[in-house]
Design a protein that fits this description.
The complex is a heterodimer of chains A (about 280) and B (about 325). With about 280 residues, chain A is mainly α. Helices cover about 80% and strands about 0% of the residues of chain A. The chains are: A mainly alpha (about 280), B mainly alpha (about 325).
Chain lengths: ~280, ~325
C-alpha cells in the first residue's frame, strides 16, 4: 500500500521510521546487552561489551537454570500473584455487583471511600502495615503479602468491574429473577459468565502488579525461601556484585516470564490500562 | 456515578429503609421492593471487600497517623508522646527538604519531557506506518518489567568497569558510569531510567485516546485549510485533554511515592542526592527504627497525594466524582 506514494510522502515515512527505530534502539539495546552479556565471561564484557560473544559461554545461564534458587523465586512469585489475583477479583466482583445493582443508604459514600483508596500506595502504608502484619503473625507468611496486595488492588478492580456490571441491561436480571434466580444465582450463573472479558482485564492488571511488587515482600519476607523474583534479582546483584555476566544472566531470565506474559495477554493489558483511564 | 442506575429497584439510596419485608407471600417478582434475600446478599457480598479494605488499607493510615505523634522505635506500645515534633523535625531536616525538591524536579521533568515525548510517539504511531504494531509492542514492553529488574539492568549497563558503561562514555565523550555517582547528575540519570520504563504507558494511553477521535474531525479541519500542525493543535490536542489530565495525575502521584527504582539504582545516594520521601521513610522506619518519625513522613506523603488529588479533581477533572481513574470524558 505504500508503493504508489510520491517522493515527499516516502521521505516523510522514512523519517518516521528512523525516529521509531531510534526510540526502539534505546529500548532494545540495554536488553540486548543483557541477553548477550549473559553469554560472555567478564573479560569479554570489558573488551567487547556489545558484540556477539566469542566464544559463547552458556555457563551463566546453565548454572542459574540448574540451581534451585531461581525456580524457587519464580514459584513464589507465581503462587503469590495467582492467589492475590484470585482474592482481589473474587472480593471486588462481589462488591462491584452490590455497588452496581443494589440501592442502599451509604452506597455512594462507600464507593467514594474505595475510590480514595486509589491514592493509598504501598509506600504510604508500608510501615504501619508492617507493624500490623507483625502483630497478626503474618511475617514470613505468604498471606502477609497476598492479603495486603489484594486489599490495595480492590479500588481499581471494583471501579472497572462496577462499570462493566452497570452496562448489563436490567432486563437480564429481571428475566433471571422471573426464572427463579436469587441474587446469588444471578451473580454466579449470569453476571460472572457475561463479565468474562472484564474479569480477564482486571486479572491481568492484578497479576502484573503482584508480579512486580517489591516493597511489600521486601519487608514481609526475611526468610529467603519465600523470596519472590524481584527480591531474588536484587539479592543476586548484591551477592555477585563483581560477576557482572552472571547477574546479567539472572536479570535476563527474570524478565522472561513478564515478557512472555505480555506476549500472551497484550490485548487485556493494554485494553485494561487504557480502558480504566477512559472509563 | 452520576448516571442513575439502570435497575428498576436501584433508585436513589434509601429505599432499603422501607419497611422491609412482607412475609413470604408478599415477595414480589418485579424486584421493586428489597426482599430479605437481597439484603442478606448485600451483606454477604460486601463483607470480604470491606474487611480487607478496612483492616489492611484504612487501619494502616490511622496507625501511621497515631504513631507519627510519638517517639517510638516500633516495639511495644508507643508511650513517648511528642505532639507534632516529628513533623517539625521533617520540615527542618535538609534531607527531607531535599526529598521534596527532588520530587518537584522529577515531576517537572516528567511533565516537560516524558509526557510530550510519549504524546509525540503516539501521534507518530497513529500514522499509517508499516510495522507500527511492532514499534508499539516494543515501546510498551518496558512497562511490564518490574522496577527492580529495570534498575538492576541499568546498574549493569552503566557499570563503569565492565565495558558498556565505558563504551557509552567514549561515545558521549563523558564519563557515563559517573552519572550515578555524581550528586549533580544522579537525579537526571534516575529520571531517564524511570522514563525508559514508563513512557510506553503514557504512549499507549495517548494512542488509545487518539484512535477514539473520529477521522472526520481532522479531515474537516484540513478541508477548511488548516495545516497539519494547526489541525493537531486546534482539533486533536483539545480532544486529548482528558487523557493529558489523567496522565499528569498518574505521573505526579507516581512520583510522590517513587521507591523501588531509586532504592535499587542508587539507594538514595550519593549523599542523599537522589533520595525520595519514600526512601527516607524506609531508611528511618526499617533501618534505624525511628518508626514515629518515619510514620510522620508517611503521613506527609499521604497528605500530599490526597491534597493534590482533591484539588486536581476539583479544579482540573471537575465533574469526575468516581475517582481518579474514571474520567468519563470532557466536561465541555
Amino acid at each position: 500500500m505504500t508503493t504508489s506514494a510520491n517522493p515527499a510522502q516516502r521521505g516523510r515515512r522514512l523519517l518516521l521510521h528512523l525516529v521509531c527505530i531510534a526510540v526502539g534502539a534505546l529500548i532494545v539495546v540495554p536488553v540486548w546487552f543483557g541477553v548477550i552479556g549473559g553469554f560472555k565471561d567478564n573479560g569479554q564484557l570489558s573488551t567487547n561489551p556489545l558484540g556477539l560473544p566469542d566464544p559463547w559461554v552458556p555457563g551463566n545461564y546453565v548454572e542459574i537454570f540448574t540451581a534451585g534458587v531461581f525456580w524457587r523465586n519464580v514459584g513464589n512469585s507465581v503462587l503469590i500473584a495467582v492467589a492475590s489475583t484470585f482474592v482481589v477479583v473474587a472480593a471486588a466482583a462481589m462488591a462491584a455487583y452490590v455497588f452496581a445493582r443494589f440501592a442502599f443508604r451509604g452506597r455512594e459514600f462507600l464507593v467514594t471511600i474505595f475510590a480514595i483508596g486509589l491514592m493509598f500506595p504501598f509506600a504510604v502504608a508500608i510501615l504501619p502495615l508492617f507493624i500490623l502484619l507483625r502483630g497478626m503473625g503474618l511475617l514470613d507468611n505468604p498471606l502477609g503479602v497476598i492479603l495486603p496486595q489484594a486489599a490495595f488492588g480492590l479500588p481499581i478492580t471494583i471501579i472497572i468491574l462496577r462499570q462493566f456490571f452497570r452496562s448489563i441491561p436490567g432486563e437480564v436480571e429481571e428475566a433471571a429473577t422471573l426464572d427463579g434466580c436469587g441474587p446469588f444465582g444471578f451473580f454466579w450463573r449470569v453476571l460472572l459468565p457475561m463479565a468474562r472479558p472484564a474479569l480477564a482485564t482486571v486479572s491481568v492488571l492484578a497479576l502484573v502488579s503482584s508480579w512486580n511488587n517489591f516493597m511489600l515482600p521486601l519487608v514481609v519476607f526475611t526468610d529467603q525461601s519465600w523470596w519472590t523474583l524481584p527480591l531474588g534479582v536484587q539479592a543476586f546483584q548484591g551477592q555477585y556484585s563483581d560477576d557482572t555476566a552472571k547477574v546479567l544472566a539472572y536479570v535476563v531470565l527474570s524478565m522472561i516470564p513478564a515478557l512472555g506474559f505480555y506476549a500472551i495477554a497484550e490485548r487485556q493489558l493494554i485494553g485494561g490500562l487504557s480502558g480504566s483511564v477512559k472509563g | 456515578m452520576t448516571t442513575p442506575s439502570i435497575l428498576s429497584n436501584a433508585g436513589p439510596g434509601g429505599r432499603v429503609t422501607e419497611p422491609s419485608g412482607p412475609g413470604p407471600g408478599g415477595v414480589r417478582r418485579t424486584g421493586r421492593r428489597p426482599r430479605p434475600g437481597r439484603r442478606r446478599a448485600l451483606a454477604v457480598f460486601l463483607a470480604p471487600s470491606l474487611v480487607l479494605f478496612l483492616l489492611l488499607v484504612l487501619t494502616p493510615i490511622v496507625v501511621a497517623g497515631y504513631a507519627s505523634l510519638y517517639k517510638w522505635n516500633g516495639f511495644g506500645l508507643p508511650e513517648n508522646f511528642i505532639g507534632l515534633d516529628n513533623y517539625t523535625r521533617a520540615f527542618g531536616d535538609p534531607v527531607f527538604r531535599g526529598d521534596l525538591w527532588h520530587g518537584l524536579v522529577l515531576i517537572v521533568l516528567s511533565l516537560a519531557v516524558q509526557l510530550p515525548v510519549a504524546m509525540g510517539l503516539a501521534m507518530l504511531l497513529n500514522q499509517p506506518l508499516r510495522g507500527r504494531a511492532i514499534y508499539r509492542v516494543i515501546f510498551f514492553a518496558p512497562y511490564v518489567l518490574s522496577e527492580v529488574t529495570t534498575a538492576v539492568l541499568f546498574n549493569l549497563v552503566f557499570s563503569p568497569n565492565r565495558g558498556f558503561g565505558d563504551a557509552i562514555s567514549r561515545f558521549l565523550g563523558a564519563d557515563a558510569g559517573a552519572v550515578f555517582a555524581d550528586p549533580d547528575t544522579v537525579l537526571y540519570a534516575v529520571f531517564l531510567v524511570v522514563s525508559w520504563k514508563y513512557f510506553g504507558l503514557y504512549m499507549i494511553l495517548f494512542l488509545a485516546a487518539r484512535q477514539n477521535i473520529p477521522k472526520e474531525l481532522n479531515e474537516a479541519a484540513v478541508t477548511d485549510g488548516a495545516s497539519a500542525w494547526q489541525a493537531f493543535r486546534l482539533v486533536t490536542l483539545p480532544l486529548l485533554g482528558p487523557t493529558i489530565r489523567i496522565s499528569v495525575f498518574l505521573s505526579v502521584i507516581g512520583t510522590i511515592q517513587l521507591f523501588d527504582m531509586v532504592w535499587v539504582l542508587t539507594g538514595g545516594g550519593p549523599i542523599h542526592a537522589s533520595e525520595t520521601m519514600a526512601v527516607t521513610m524506609f531508611q528511618f522506619g526499617f533501618r534505624r527504627f525511628e518508626v514515629g518519625y518515619a510514620s510522620a513522613i508517611s503521613i506527609i506523603m499521604f497528605l500530599l497525594s490526597l491534597v493534590f488529588a482533591l484539588i486536581y479533581q476539583r479544579v482540573v477533572l471537575r465533574r469526575d466524582t468516581e475517582g481518579a481513574l474514571t474520567v468519563q470524558g470532557d466536561q465541555r
